[in-house]
Amino acid sequence: MTGEAVVVGAGIAGLAAARGLLAAGWRVQVRERSDGLPVTGTSLGMWPAAMRALDDLGLGEEVRAASVEARGGRILRPDGRALARLGPERSVRMVPRPVLLEALARDLPPGTIAWHRPAGDPGLLPDADVVVAADGVHSPVRTALFGVAERPLGTVAIRGRALLPAEGVTETWGPGRIFGITPYDAISTYWYACFRAELLPEPPPAGATAEVLRGLYRGWHPAVQQVLAALDETSLDRRELLDVPPLRSYVTARTALVGDAAHAMAPNLGRGAAEALVDATTLVDALTEDAEPLVDEAGVAAALRHYDAVRRPPTTRLVRAARLLNRMSTGHRLVRPRDLALAAVGRLV
């Protein structure tokens, strides 16, 4: 017997869930409000659990071939001196978002994704055995069914690419602001600036974001200055950072929240995309029994409860930890004690 699933959102979590459910014998319809996959985007950290999820989806080798491996990392002071180091045994693959999305969407049956189809009223979604809400941090499904909206972190991020190679992974912490540098691919750098919202001029000058950044990070070490000198104003992405308060459940009736709809978090841990992939494969596994879809109401309800029990506790901890790290790294006060404590922890680990 074939089950039917409606997936709301064609981002990482939604496409991964759709791909996994199709492979498990489900009929799947994906509804996406945009007109197609994005052609630009950030560099995403794929930790070992996420790479295992991609292996489960049959995409691990393809993604490895199209990404770069980063080992270790350093947290620096604005003058370039190291506060803490992560050893080379800590490995993460840096995957461009467009590469990952294209891999997840490739070879889906024609018509699986209905582009330019917003979710609308969650109560009016097509009847299906399962609804997978993968509609992001602003999730209308979560707001309607769970009554929980996203919340601001009080910080702003500006991100982009620079056409120069990155020498490893670094994050530089200063008063009220940080600056991160990671590989995007073999020839370019993905960078991000995160700072307290009140440091941004009000209103922000139109078309002068690069100049604002150069002012905020003036005098920082040469690697930051090299990136700032190579900025392309037209490619900058600026957004207020948000997360989702911890939920009492990720499931209700026939609906499951996945990815940012369930647990959008501050980007400081670099885990959002990776956890979305693990959500998707965990949900697919829960909804499949003996290689067959679970389509009876009791079976689906039990599968969703299992998914919630497995995924909600660890992702709730990550949301809290990422929020705390966002506050610490961009703190205005007690910067020297913070740096001393970070250096001490770095020596221990």
UniProtKB/TrEMBL annotation:
Residues 5-96, 128-321 form the FAD-binding domain. InterPro entries: FAD-bd, FAD/NAD-bd_sf, MOase. It comes from the Bacteria. GO terms for molecular function: FAD binding; monooxygenase activity. Keywords: Monooxygenase, Oxidoreductase. Gene3D superfamilies: FAD/NAD(P)-binding domain. SUPFAM superfamilies: FAD/NAD(P)-binding domain. Belongs to the 3-hydroxybenzoate 6-hydroxylase family. This is Monooxygenase. The lineage of its organism: Bacteria, Bacillati, Actinomycetota, Actinomycetes, Micrococcales.
